[in-house]
Structure formats: structure tokens, C-alpha cells
Inverse folding.
């Protein structure tokens, strides 16, 4: 079953997930307990209490693999695993793993995925969030809990 996130804002709430598009060109800051850089493979592995910040987007996970251009100036992809949490503005998503592809312009969350926006909750096995629009497509046993306008403050 596929479901797009218009259900998240069908009750008169804002459209899209967070402020992804306005942050997509912001610098990326990464922190972790350990970082191992492999220049030959153009990648870095961050482990332990990983926190990655881009504008007002926050990505937390137990480990993240960063794949960058050969010149080490542009990041192409981030693969986050275990206890993944993505926060953008007031919106929050969590999953077992995330694939943030900056060239493709999307974030794919897999495994026990949950998105919370304006009190509405969506759960699925997978969610793909478009960075430009903030729209998401959920698949794999989708479950939603929608709040009425009166319940959301």
C-alpha cells in the first residue's frame, strides 16, 4: 500500500515535511564519538552518538556512512543506521535506517518508520521524502492517526 503525506496536512496543517528544501545547500556539520576517513573510497564512517546538522535539519543515529566527492568538498550520500531520528522544524521522523541522497534529492527511511507532523502520526515500513517539496510517500503496512483541528494547538 502506498500513501502520500497529504493526509498529514489534510486537516489544514502546513504542507510537506519540515524545511528540507531551504536547508539543502547549507553546510553540513557532523559529530560522533569516532570518525574513520577512507580517502581512497571517498567516504567517512561515523559511529557512536552521531549527530549531523544541516541548517535546521538534525539527523541522529548510532552510525552514519558519509560518501563524498573525490575532492572532499561535496557530500553525495549519508547512510544512517540504528536509532535513526530526523528532525526538520517541528516535524520528526524515525526509522531503523535512512538513505539521504543529496544528488537524488530524497531521504528514504526504512524499517519501523514513523513520521510525526502537527500531532498527526504515520507509520510504515518505508517512507521516501522529497527534499524539494517535503512530500513523502509511505509504503508497507501504512497506519495513520489523524488529529482534528480542534485537538492540535
Amino acid at each position: 500500500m502506498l500513501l502520500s503525506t497529504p493526509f498529514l496536512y489534510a486537516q489544514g496543517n502546513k504542507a510537506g515535511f519540515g524545511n528540507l528544501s531551504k536547508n539543502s545547500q547549507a553546510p553540513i556539520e557532523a559529530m560522533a564519538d569516532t570518525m574513520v576517513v577512507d580517502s581512497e573510497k571517498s567516504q567517512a564512517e561515523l559511529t557512536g552518538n552521531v549527530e549531523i546538522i544541516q541548517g535546521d535539519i538534525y539527523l541522529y543515529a548510532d552510525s552514519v556512512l558519509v560518501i563524498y566527492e573525490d575532492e572532499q568538498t561535496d557530500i553525495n550520500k549519508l547512510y544512517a543506521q540504528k536509532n535513526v531520528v530526523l528532525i526538520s522544524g517541528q516535524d520528526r521522523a524515525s526509522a531503523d535506517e535512512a538513505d539521504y541522497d543529496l544528488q537524488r534529492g530524497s531521504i528514504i527511511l526504512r524499517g519501523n518508520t514513523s513520521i510525526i507532523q502537527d500531532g498527526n502520526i504515520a507509520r510504515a515500513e518505508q517512507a521516501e521524502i522529497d527534499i524539494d517539496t517535503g512530500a513523502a510517500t509511505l509504503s508497507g503496512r501504512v497506519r495513520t492517526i489523524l488529529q482534528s483541528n480542534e485537538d492540535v494547538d
User: Anything to note?
Assistant: Confidence is low (pLDDT under 50) at residues 1-14.
